[in-house]
Amino acid sequence: MKQVKLFFILFLLFLIEGTVLPHVLPLQTGDHFEIVPAFVMVAVLLIAFFANVRWGMRYAILFGLLNDIVNTSVIGVYAFSMGLSLYLTYLLSKWVNLNLMTALALSAFGVLLCQIEVYLIYLMIGVTTQPVTAFLIWRLPPTLVLNIIFTLIFYFPFWHFLSGMDEEDVR
Amino acid sequence: MPSFFSNKKLIVLLSSLIILIALISYSLRQGDRSSWIQQFTGDTVGLFQNIVNVPAQYTAGFFQNVSDIRNAYSENKKLKANLEDYARVQQQNEDLTQRNNQLRQMLNIGKDPVLASYKKYPASVISRSADQWNQQLTVNKGRINGIKAGMPVITSSGLIGSISKTGNFTSQVSLISNQQNVNQISAMILTKKSKIYGMIEGYNAHKGVLLFQKIPIKANLKNGQVVTTSGLSGMYPPGLLIGKITSVSTDPYGLTKAAEVKPFVSLNDINYVMIIQKSSTAAGNGG
Lengths: 171, 287
Description:
The complex is a heterodimer.
Chain A: H1 2-24, H2 39-50, H3 53-71, H4 77-93, H5 100-125, H6 132-169
Chain B: H1 7-30, H2 36-70, H3 72-106, E1 118-128, E2 136-139, E3 152-155, E4 158-166, E5 171-175, E6 185-190, E7 195-204, E8 209-216, E9 226-229, E10 241-250, E11 256-263, E12 272-278
Antiparallel strand pairs in B: 1-2, 1-12, 2-5, 3-4, 3-12, 4-5, 6-7, 6-9, 7-8, 8-11, 9-10, 10-11
């Protein structure tokens, strides 16, 4: 039952990314700034940190694929990048003590990694022609700030949800 | 210290890389067709997007209204000034239409379909790709409503793109700012004396301008001239507004001119669109 709830939470975040945020936040009003929400990525990372890396991996690939099919023209890029960056960040997370600060830093790192991977793949297959300087200066910092703020808001409720899940589902 | 990647994980990584490359090449070759899995996923997600979209739009609309009220007075003044001009333009328009009809009758082409006529399907945007590398939208009309891949999409202020993929209830719009746009747009500038033809080939995201190229070197281009579709390509009907020229240059070889065109539509803020279907008989003539 909790798994179904978890799926719907992630799906809701996915809808917020694509459908709600373009209306509510003036995301693209600036000429140069690019603020990209990666809420599903943050949630999936938190699942890997606090619940189970297998679930995290499963949802990362599932929602990556969903994003690929619904919002992009090339299938597989997000599924691969989200999965890989989730795994790498999870490996890093084993080395540190997990609390709010380290979880913030690690999820920011995960989002950063995912952005870089997708950027490199898209650059190779010609989906984007964004110059590297624009990517580093105008895209990454605002994106990280938005996602860190989101993590701050999302962290405690989601952490409670996940710890409730541990007791119920893990045998 | 454990090794970073064990053998088994390396194999998993490599095989997922192979799958990735296979998927990428599949979707690059696919063009405007979409498999049933894609259609099914798009339609199912589209249902939920439709539901979420309504309250989101209302909320956004409320804040928009508040800011609108604040500059209503100055806008009202400006609009009143425009309205006086409008009557004159309307009169002129009627006059020209009448004369045009008369001339058509004289030439016996009265019964031919008007090349510029088209049917409009209104649709609302239910999703937009959050990463701005994929410049594409999802709208809530699909094949059931008569939408086909390749149809041009406009808003009230001008051209924004074309339909790239259709599902049963939703379809994807590839914006003119999309780097992947293989469809170049045949465009023109209408001056008093002549028509200047060229091609829209690409988009500069940093400046937010379209690149209008292959313009004859002798053409007399000025900043502020309006660029529209020419209809020569047969894909877009003629006369759809695209944008205004903001700067003019000569191409590196000195053979043609190039210009930067600022789109009339602010491509980052689109809520409602219209999908255009050209009158069927006009298609072959290159509309």
